[in-house]
Amino acid sequence: MKNLVILGAGYGGVTLAHELLDHKIPADTQIILVDRMPFQGLKTEYYALAAGTASDLELRVKFPTHAKMTTRYGDVTGINLEDKVISFEDGEPLNYDQMVIALGCTDNFHGVPGAAEYTSTIQSFTATRDTYLKINNLPPQATVNIVGGGLSGIEIAAEIRESREDLNVRILDRGERLLSSSPPRLSKYVEEWFREHNVEVRNHINISRVEGHCVYNGESERISADVTVWTAGIRPVPLIDELNVNQDNSGRVILDELYRIPGRPEVFVCGDCASLPFAASAQAAEAQAEQIANVIVAGWKGEQPKVQPLKLKGTLGALGKKSGFGTGFGFGGKSSVTGKVPRLLKSGVLWMSKHHFG
Ligand SMILES: Cc1cc2nc3c(=O)[nH]c(=O)nc-3n(C[C@H](O)[C@H](O)[C@H](O)COP(=O)(O)OP(=O)(O)OC[C@H]3O[C@@H](n4cnc5c(N)ncnc54)[C@H](O)[C@@H]3O)c2cc1C
């Protein structure tokens, strides 16, 4: 029996599994879906779990089931591309004939001393649960620092504000404005929302060091906090660095035109681990997974594999449960929209994601 192993059952891995299971799987092939969690975690909503506005259960999605697919629960500790073997913290190693690596990303601490030790994160389900406890056990008037004013930082800051009116919430951002890669109109809207909701925004902050209850801006300014949440950048999970393959500046694996590791046609890389011409996103992971499925299915049928260019829609962000923003959808010719409509759209996208409607 040939093992087609999908490593990581997040947005990319689960989409790929669904796509493959829609086709006739060859009699000599079985699919093995591997994850350290017994369900898919909806990472795009981890900010709400951390703030306490969404429950653990709401962010879990069951894996697909099929006679030709098994799931393997476990923590992957190594990938040997030469011998085609995956090793686990516990249990037997797993051989593969074909493999898709879709293990997602972790925080990028940019070498800032103390950041890994003293900040809380929302990059994994387990870490987000810890962050939830830290934030929600705080006494009134305690302070939460959010490092990073991109999408995740903004969403968690707004959500904490809605969850805990009694806390001081502060965003520390390196740039001149929040959401620096979005249209200035959008940054203005978001900054105004934070002003109205009593969230402090500080720009031009250069975090040089983190300690137990503070961060340092440059060498001299000490900014205190009871909890500091890090949302200032991501990079692929550390297993990727151990593969000894070509990576881009963000650590993502450089791939051939069919999303395979060059020289290893049996290994695909999907989602946040893959070097794509976009920032990492669930949307990109799902779109890429569909194309990888096309390549694998073409192989099953003995056809020439080809992929379509990845087309992404825009980005939607939440400012609590009632307001939000969107860019890149071409909303009536506008580059961005704000308010209730994009927030409703975001809830709709989440619903579709939970029910695998693309
Ligand atoms: C707060 C927040 C908000 C976001 N909002 C958006 C948004 O609005 N729109 C959008 O498109 N994107 C958004 N993103 C980004 C999006 O969540 C990721 O880009 C997406 O999850 C990437 O999909 P993936 O399949 O590559 O990885 P993931 O979905 O992270 O899946 C990786 C899987 O691998 C498993 N895994 C990792 N390491 C191991 C191991 N060693 N052993 C076993 N299993 C392992 C994990 O458990 C996980 O299930 C957001 C991210 C965050 C944190």
From TrEMBL:
<keyword id="KW-0274">FAD</keyword>
<protein>
    <submittedName>
        <fullName>NADH dehydrogenase</fullName>
        <ecNumber>1.6.99.3</ecNumber>
    </submittedName>
</protein>
<dbReference type="GO" id="GO:0019646">
    <property type="term" value="P:aerobic electron transport chain"/>
</dbReference>
<feature type="domain" description="FAD/NAD(P)-binding">
    <location>
        <begin position="3"/>
        <end position="288"/>
    </location>
</feature>
<comment type="similarity">
    <text>Belongs to the NADH dehydrogenase family.</text>
</comment>
<dbReference type="InterPro" id="IPR036188">
    <property type="entry name" value="FAD/NAD-bd_sf"/>
</dbReference>
<keyword id="KW-0560">Oxidoreductase</keyword>
<dbReference type="Pfam" id="PF07992">
    <property type="entry name" value="Pyr_redox_2"/>
</dbReference>
<dbReference type="GO" id="GO:0003955">
    <property type="term" value="F:NAD(P)H dehydrogenase (quinone) activity"/>
</dbReference>
<keyword id="KW-0285">Flavoprotein</keyword>
<dbReference type="InterPro" id="IPR051169">
    <property type="entry name" value="NADH-Q_oxidoreductase"/>
</dbReference>
<dbReference type="InterPro" id="IPR023753">
    <property type="entry name" value="FAD/NAD-binding_dom"/>
</dbReference>
